[in-house]
Amino acid sequence: MTSPSALLCSVIVPVYNGQTSIIACLDALSRQSIPLQHFEVIVVDDGSTDGSRAAVEEWLATKAIAHWRVVSQANAGPGAARNQGAQLAQSPLLLFTDADCAPSPDWVEALLRVFEQPDVVGAKGTYLTDQTGLTPRFVQAEYEDRYDRMVGSERIDFVDTYSAAYRRTIFLENGGFATVFTTASVEDQEFSFRLAAKGYRLVFAPQAQVKHIHDENLGEYFRRKYFIGFWKSLLTRWHPERMVQDSHTPPVLKVQMLLWAALVGLLPWALLSFVWPLLTPVWWLMGGLLAFFLLSALPFAQKLAQHSWKLVLISPLLLAARSLALGLGYLIGTVHFAGTPPGAPRPVIPGWKRLIKRSIDIAGALVGLALGIPLILLAAIAIKVDSDGPIFYLQTRVGEHGRRFRIAKLRSMRVDAEARLADYVDVTSLAEPAYKIVDDPRITRVGKLLRRSSLDEWPQFWNVLRGEMSLVGPRPEEEQIVALYNDFQRQRLLMKPGLTGPMQVNGRGDLSLSRRIALELEYIEQYSLWRDIQILAQTVPAVLAGRGAR
């Protein structure tokens, strides 16, 4: 019998009243390309009433595979079931699929392969289907359209658990799936958003394929989309930034939802035109919106045409149903979840505050750039006279949710400064992921003045204008340092980095990492626009005092 330490991964399959599908899933898992003794399978019965557990027990009895087992819990939803399986797992990697999925023979191997990259924390696979009906073929094409958005991406933020994998330690450190989602809906998206917000690297693994039974008809399709919209209303309260963009959802979907919301809203006024002719133009407005909707569907229709012209013909109906179902579900969910549910996480910056903060950033960046032009010109001349090399220094930094961006600074060091870093500090052996070199010999004479006055950071107003930074926020950090962060320290990445922030007005380089982290996390957890204004006001005296400037 294989010892638990020899297991490469644990496959967790939640099942609720899935007696007719779970056996096909287990059969597929038993035909994997890697030896069965190298992975365990944990089926978690989520309070089924149809004999699912008995069917799994009977199947396991005939196979007698070591480390494959079934456990039960009272019905609490697939998120809670997966969490229980993760607690029981005995291997470092957790693989997830659903009871109505049949993984391809190389599914386990394909997911294991991506974790050969040590910085990968999670992975997402893909759906396939053998169904020939128009609705399931449309659903498959819809998924493939979303997969096209992810192909080639260095990192993603959206992972579905029909084909997914996570490192167990990170999964448990972050509390697993939110159990408030009591039905299969968006609990998997919410967890991946949480990890992505901390800058963890999630990747797309298109070869990790599972066959699935998609919606068979319009009714099933509408119902599924409705409940996604219902639970999405709660999800976007926790992660308001995802209302704008994620790596999976096509932006045109949100446009189409707004178009149909407008059409439904205008319909009563259009009907009133039969008794009040002055409202007749409303019909023309609705016609224009409908035409815009059809135009927005053209790119997807072109993809459908590669499969079948029948799919093109039914696409307006299904796309309209999708928009209406998601919109209706979102509206009812918003009413249902009014207030703050007990134990619900609070967004770092609520949507309206995010909009105001961004508006202040844009205005401040424009003013800063305008005022800084003469100062930057004088500094540029001094840099050129003082030392060889470019005027500006560009370096990759890690921003909000781990996004990489190129930070702009006036060069204050010798051109070979990065190459000589190893002469003064071994980043890999740091006691904590931070360093400051006292009297750094790589800094030029002009560079000392630039740093003392913080003028070297003035070009970062450009990063603020581009939306990569904010006027106020945590310090933007280097990639090699972020790679050393633990889970707690990664909370710094929940917000955009700032041109100034709690570190800059409380000692800058004199602060230890633990003190800096404490200040920045307090700022994030207690965020307010008033606090931003206070920090901006404290920045000028802090710069003039020069404490901690190095």
Radius of gyration: 27 Å
CATH fold annotation of the largest domain: Spore Coat Polysaccharide Biosynthesis Protein SpsA, Chain A
**How many strands appear in the DSSP assignment?**
13
**Whole-number mean pLDDT:** 90
What's the CATH H-level homologous superfamily of the largest domain? Spore Coat Polysaccharide Biosynthesis Protein SpsA, Chain A
Shape: globular
Ends distance:
60 Å
* Domain module count: 3
Major sheet summary line: 8 strands, mixed
Write up what this structure looks like:
Strand 2, helix 2 and strand 3 form a beta-alpha-beta unit. The protein is built from 18 helices and 13 strands. It is an alpha/beta fold. The mean pLDDT is 90. It folds into three domains: 4-215, Spore Coat Polysaccharide Biosynthesis Protein SpsA, Chain A; 217-347, no CATH class; 351-545, no CATH class.
Which descriptors apply to this entry?
single chain; alpha/beta; 14% strand; 3 domains; 550 residues; globular
Summarize this structure briefly.
By secondary structure, this protein is of the alpha/beta class.
Annotate the secondary structure layout:
Elements: E1 9-15, H1 22-29, E2 39-46, H2 52-63, E3 68-73, H3 78-88, E4 93-97, E5 101-103, H4 107-114, E6 120-128, H5 134-150, E7 163-167, H6 168-173, H7 187-197, E8 201-212, H8 218-238, H9 251-272, H10 281-296, H11 298-305, H12 309-336, H13 351-386, E9 392-398, E10 404-410, H14 445-453, H15 460-465, E11 470-472, E12 477-478, H16 479-482, E13 498-500, H17 513-525, H18 529-545
Parallel strand pairs: 1-2, 1-4, 2-3, 6-8, 11-13
Antiparallel strand pairs: 4-7, 5-8, 6-7, 9-10, 9-12
Helix pairs in contact: 5-12, 8-12, 9-10, 9-12, 11-12, 13-14
